[in-house]
Fold this sequence. Notes:
Blueprint: H1 3-23, H2 28-34, H3 39-58, H4 69-86, H5 91-111, H6 120-139, H7 142-151, H8 155-176
Helix pairs in contact: 1-5, 1-6, 1-8, 3-4, 3-5, 5-6
Amino acid sequence: MSLLLATLLTGLVLLAVGGWFLWNGPEVRPATFAWLRSTPAAVVLFGGAAVWFLWHIAHLGKADFGDYKQLLLLLFGVTALGSFFFVKDFLPVRGLAVLILLCARPLLDAAYMQFDHPQRLLLVVAVYASIVIALIIGATPYRLRNFFNWLFRANTRVRGLGGILAGYGAVLFVVAFTY
């Protein structure tokens, strides 16, 4: 992935999420809380994360436990499938966390060793911040619900977060065309 595409996509995602919270219409609060425990969202987010992770395992080299590829595929495949039956609570949040972590590598790889573009650090900061958030919500997904409870107690907080995310997304979108 090129640095232009990585920065552009990250900017667009931040613009979309920021725009959602900045708009803060009557559907925003219920929809924001509904996906946290939604089965269709779990299938899309956690299922997508599981497929992507299993794809990585299927392409392991010899130096990366490649000799145990089939065993690892079976172990993680059964674990992912079992999660849909035994760990249903906040499964979409866990799937989102895994997707964020899986997306981080290509984004950081795009910015790697690009010293002639110091503005790439705006992308890197956003990616590392999302990694920290993904680790927190992946380990304790109820914290995202608690954050949303705190956030929606005041409209200024929701719009403030939306403005920050949309603004940073807009900056990344513009910066993408400066490479």
